[in-house]
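To whoever is covering the structure queue this week,

Two jobs came back overnight. Logging them here so there's a record in the thread.

Job A:
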Amino acid sequence: VQLVESGGGLVQPGGSLRLSCTASGFTFENFAVSWYRQGPRKGRELVALITRGGGGRNYLDSVKDRFTISRDDAKNTVYLQMNSLKPEDTAVYYCKSSNSWGQGIQVTVSS
């Protein structure tokens, strides 16, 4: 099982980024997928989750109406579209599925 995140980087406040998580080694379409993040001196928190089939989505309250999680099972990929980014969104973002974690990717929101 392997999960690989991409799309992170440095962005100014108010900007946007789209993270991708591409999976291999398991039947991706059969599993829910989550995005977590861990900011400086903070614990890891669940940011967004999408269910098997994509019919259900849940979000951390602080990112609702700004972040959107989606999946493309044909590409074994889940996306996290992040808009109106704030400095407090700065964190390492992790993808999780099938009890496995990606290596994480840095998102920094700063002017």
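Job B:
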Amino acid sequence: QVQLVESGGGLVQPGGSLRLSCAASGFTFGSSDMSWVRQAPGKGPEWVSFINSSGGSTYYADSVKGRFTISRDNNKNTVYLQMSSLKFEDTGVYFCAMGWHTVRAYWGQGTQVTVSS
């Protein structure tokens, strides 16, 4: 079955950077589009970034455009999210997901990102 394991979250000051990783297994990673979705406390999920199966096409929500970079390594079955210039409002649980706007069953367990001074 689909298994997605995120890592790299933590506590960071405003303006800082973090790199999230997501290790995938249980499906043909190199043929699958991948995404990152986040959920802030008390809010619904926000789909923040997408990368197609080859890595040649990406998308970013306006809230993170210019600050976040999604990438993938199909040899390592891993997708990354490089986050810089972090803001308080970037705080939340970050999930990687198979596909785009997919159901919760295709998400990982999440990693907490807290932006605080």
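Note for Job B: The longest strand covers residues 18-25.

Please reply-all if you pick these up so we don't duplicate work.
Q.
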